[in-house]
Design brief:
heterodimer; A: mainly beta; 7-stranded mixed beta sheet; 4-stranded antiparallel beta sheet; globular; B: mainly beta; about 55% strand
């Protein structure tokens, strides 16, 4: 039931782009994305709802393919501050209950 | 700047001892979540409440864990007796009244070490 994220880890130079994928075996109501820096709490990035609505940071974009039960997070022109572990959280119904994915560790170097 | 607060931030205890973790959700938020994070299992939902009522505690080992909300400003997670396998970071998160966008705001976590 836990969504699978890919890749597990990404290493980038500043300014490069990355895509992080999240795949579920079940139909989804929404997908949430969070970033966690080492030793800190997860921080909300974005929510994507069934039907196309979304809310999130201006500099981060994402997509949600309901039929494929997949979501992708697009990080463009990466900055050092983007480093951290990215988690997707999937919601199966309108319950607020999230099942978090396995995480993708992103490191951005100068 | 509204934040979720958790106490204690760090707890070291011996196997068999009782552990109580506390969380103060953001004022006005009516949904409270308890998560456990380990390297092996990742971020797991233990239990969550809405308007102080438990909605789901299926992720919690019932024989030793209990979660309550004595009032709207306090949530507690208790482990009795604690075991070394309970060592983890425990996060509390709160969310605003349910709407289309139900983002969760995480507290700083309680790092628990059971020896």
């Amino acid at each position: 039931q836990q969504p699978v994220q890919s890749p597990q880890a990404v290493i980038l130079r500043e300014g490069e782009d990355a895509v992080i994928n999240c795949s579920s075996s079940k139909a989804l109501y929404s997908v949430h994305w969070y970033r966690q820096k080492h030793g800190e709490a997860p921080v909300f990035l974005m929510i994507l709802l069934k039907g196309g609505e979304q809310k999130g940071h201006e500099k981060i974009s994402a997509s949600f393919n309901e039929k494929k039960q997949q979501s992708s997070l697009y990080l463009t022109a990466s900055q050092l501050s983007y480093s951290g572990t990215y988690f997707c959280g999937t919601e199966l119904g309108n319950t607020d209950k999230l099942i978090f994915g396995t995480g993708t560790r992103l490191q951005v170097f100068p | 700047d509204a934040r979720v607060t958790q106490t204690p931030r760090d707890k070291v205890t011996e196997m068999g001892q009782e552990v109580t973790m506390r969380c103060q959700p953001i004022l006005g938020h009516n949904t409270v979540f308890w998560y456990r994070q380990t390297m092996m299992q990742g971020l797991e939902l233990l239990a969550y409440f809405r308007n102080r009522a438990p909605l789901d505690d299926s992720g919690m080992p019932k024989d030793r864990f209990s979660a309550e909300m004595p009032d709207a400003t306090l949530a507690t997670l208790k482990i009795q007796p604690s075991e070394p396998r309970d060592s983890a970071v425990y996060f509390c998160a709160s969310g605003p009244p349910t709407g289309a966008y139900n983002e969760q705001f995480f507290g700083p976590g309680t790092r628990l070490t059971v020896l």
